[in-house]
Amino acid sequence: MHEASLAGGILKLVEDAARREAFRRVTVLRLEVGQLAGVELRALKFALEAIAPGTHLEGARLEFEEPAGQAWCMTCSQTVVLAARGMACTECGSYQLQPTGGTELRVIDMLVADE
Ligand SMILES: [Zn+2]
Questions:
Q1: What pLDDT score was predicted for residue 1?
Q2: Where, in this chain's numbering, is Ni(2+) bound (predicted)?
Q3: Is the pTM of this model over 0.70?
């Protein structure tokens, strides 16, 4: 599953940071998952919780921010809100849309503990 490999990538990032900065565990992990990132939030949360035991992520609280999707419409030349990929422009019904926001999946920051 797509989300499982994303969770693996996030865990690797956390473990690399733990090695570099020598912390014991993550208490809070904040992630940004844009509405156009193509990620099922519930599946990602589930996948992260499934791989957390025995890692620095064990017991961490997961917090998600979900910025709304935005796109530039090439037909009516304006920025519109796009709830999901593949939807039409809310202003003119065109499909000539270039996503400009809400496409990211990234770690915003993490709170860590030394013991
Ligand atoms: Zn439009």
A1: 59
A2: 2
A3: yes
Give pairs for 47-54: CB < 8 Å, separation 24+.
Answer: 47/1, 47/3, 47/4, 47/6, 47/7, 48/7, 48/10, 48/11, 50/4, 50/7, 51/7, 51/8, 51/11, 52/11
The answer to whether the CB of 69 falls within 8 A of the CB of 83 is: yes
**Distance from the CA of 17 to the center of ligand 1, in angstroms?**
43
76 is in an annotated binding site: yes
**Is 10 one of the annotated binding-site residues?**
no
User: What does the pLDDT read at residue 83?
Assistant: 87
- Residues shown for the chain: 115
Residue 69: pLDDT over 80: yes
